[in-house]
Design goal:
This is Regulatory protein RecX. By secondary structure, the protein is mainly alpha-helical. It has 13 helices and no strands. Among the domains are: 50 residues, Orthogonal Bundle (Arc Repressor Mutant, subunit A); 45 residues, Arc Repressor Mutant, subunit A, CATH 1.10.10; 77 residues.
């Protein structure tokens, strides 16, 4: 491919270029030589010596970014259009004066200079003669499904009306019954702690008893069944707890009829049987007496009579010794 020869006369003078051309702004061009080689490449290259150059840190030449032109503007920079504004946009001037929202957007009405001024609050929001300035009654707003605005000085939310004493007492009773069953005496004490007056307490509890929310008989029946199945308590222990809950007399005795003597004895055997462990040294007399005292005390805490507790513990220990082949060392024991 034969290279063409160029000379400086071939190019135009700076004043002959258009105003937008870099040559017209005084920026020099790299003209090719006669042999077709650019002037930028014709300069002798600096040999690499492995040392930092005097004006270049870390031996790296500071070059302008490739995406920046000579004028210093980034070609990837997105120019912002000043006509595009965020938020509410003003309508054109020819439509602003005739818009019903002219005062709201700050546009001048017909015959007024287009100067944005702050209007006093007494001035209507919309232009004069607009139907939007007419007041709307609260009844009309409610019919349209719109909540009326609060009166000036009251805020967006009206003050909450104080709760009556009866409503407060009713809420206390319902919350207590939702957590767990309660007797009438327990609810009475709770209402007294909440500083509810005596007439209101009697009225609320009477209403709850009338609808079946408060029933001492049902409460006692459920309580006895729960304590004998879960905790294996005796009748005397359950009777004592019912009295603390405010249920006693005939109501408590009727509920305790479901707890029989056979049930108590069977539960006592089961409690002692669960406490016996292979690690216990029942061959030693002193250790055996200590274990027997602990088991009898455990049954006594659950309300079992002492005679029943002694007989149950002795029978279970003897059965355990026979089943496991332990030497019986009962001689000399005060339980004999």
């Amino acid at each position: 491919m034969q290279s063409s020869n160029f000379s400086e006369e071939t190019f135009l003078q700076p004043e002959e270029y258009p105003a937008w051309h870099p040559a017209a702004q005084g920026i020099a061009q790299d003209l090719p030589h006669e042999n077709g080689v650019d002037a930028a490449t014709s300069a002798p290259a600096t040999p690499y010596t492995g040392k930092n150059l005097p004006n270049e840190p870390n031996g790296q030449q500071q070059r302008p970014a490739s995406n920046e032109s000579v004028s210093g503007t980034n070609r990837y920079t997105k120019r912002r259009n000043p006509n595009h504004k965020k938020g509410f946009r003003r309508p054109p001037a020819k439509y602003a004066a005739t818009s019903p929202f002219a005062p709201a957007i700050g546009a001048a009405s017909a015959g007024e200079p287009d100067v944005q001024q702050k209007r006093p609050r007494s001035t209507p929001l919309f232009r004069e003669g607009s139907a939007l300035n007419e007041p709307v009654s609260d009844e009309a707003m409610l019919l349209q499904g719109v909540t009326p605005l609060p009166e000036p000085g009251q805020g967006r939310r009206r003050a909450k009306e104080p709760e009556s004493e009866f409503s407060r007492a009713k809420n206390v009773v319902l919350n207590q019954l939702a957590a767990s069953p309660k007797s009438r005496s327990m609810l009475y004490k709770k209402l007294v702690e909440k500083e509810i007056s005596e007439p209101v307490i009697e009225d609320v509890l009477a209403r709850c008893e009338a609808v079946g929310l408060v029933n001492d008989a049902e409460f006692a029946d459920v309580y006895v069944r729960t304590r004998m199945n879960v905790k294996k308590l005796s009748r005397s222990a359950i009777r004592r707890e019912l009295k603390q809950k405010g249920v006693e007399g005939e109501t408590a005795e009727i509920a305790l009829e479901q707890r029989t003597d056979d049930d108590e004895r069977n539960d006592a055997h089961e409690l002692v049987r669960k406490k016996l462990r292979p690690s216990m040294d029942l061959a030693d007399r002193q250790e055996k007496d200590k274990i027997m005292r602990r088991l009898v005390a455990m049954l006594a805490r659950k309300g079992y009579p002492s005679g029943l507790a002694f007989s149950v513990v002795k029978q279970e220990i003897e059965t355990y010794i026979e089943e496991n082949g332990i030497e019986n060392s009962s001689s000399g024991s005060y339980y004999e």
